[in-house]
Amino acid sequence: MPAKIRLQRHGRKGYAYYHIVIADSRAPRDGKFIERIGSYNPNTNPATVDLKFDRALYWLTTGAQPTDTTRNILSAEGVLMKKHLLEGVKKGAFDAAEADKRFEAWKLSKEANVNKTKEQLATEKQAAAKARLAAETEVNKAKAAELAKKKAQAVAAEAAEAAVEIPAETPATEEVAAE
Q1: Does residue 72 belong to any structural domain of this protein?
Q2: Closest C-alpha to 71, from 56, 54, 91
Q3: Are 128 and 167 in the same domain?
Q4: Which end of the chain is least crowded, N or C, by CB within 10 Å?
């Protein structure tokens, strides 16, 4: 039975998330599986991966073949790096302590890159919010200026009407006063 490490689709249309499973290669995509070793949610930024590291490493060492997408996920999580280092230990290139030290160094650099990316996204989000606020403030100022201009024109028009009506009423009042 050739085992595969692959994704099993869940969720609704247009908003999929995936379970990372070990399955027989002949089983349907969303069908029977041997073991669920994690989940992958591409809808978040950055994508969220929850993986049972030890089980994934176990299945890789027993011969399970990952699909292309799961290979990328396992690589990003460090499972393939750990497997590579363990094979180096088996061959005698270095000892287990050196392998652990190299893996921890890789893991720290990976976490630093992820944190840097998250901070950059947060900064960009704040900058975009400030830009939207500034644009909205400018629009509100323009609307306020336009409204003030219209009110000034309306007041001037009323004053002009009142000025036209007052001289017309003045002779009439003079006639009434003359009688």
Answers
A1: no
A2: 56
A3: yes
A4: C
Write the burial class of residue 18 (CB in 10 Å: 0-12 exposed, 13-18 middle, 19+ buried). buried
Q: Are residues 20 and 101 in the same domain?
A: no
Domain containing residue 46: 1-66
Q: What is the pTM of this model?
A: 0.69
Write the CB contacts of 127 (distance below 8 Å, at least 6 apart in sequence).
none
Residues 22-62 pLDDT 10s: 999 999 988 999 999 999 999 998 899 999 999 999 999 99
- Whether residue 56 is found in the same domain as residue 110: no
Query: Does 131 have pLDDT greater than 70?
Result: yes
Q: Is the pLDDT of residue 166 over 80?
A: no
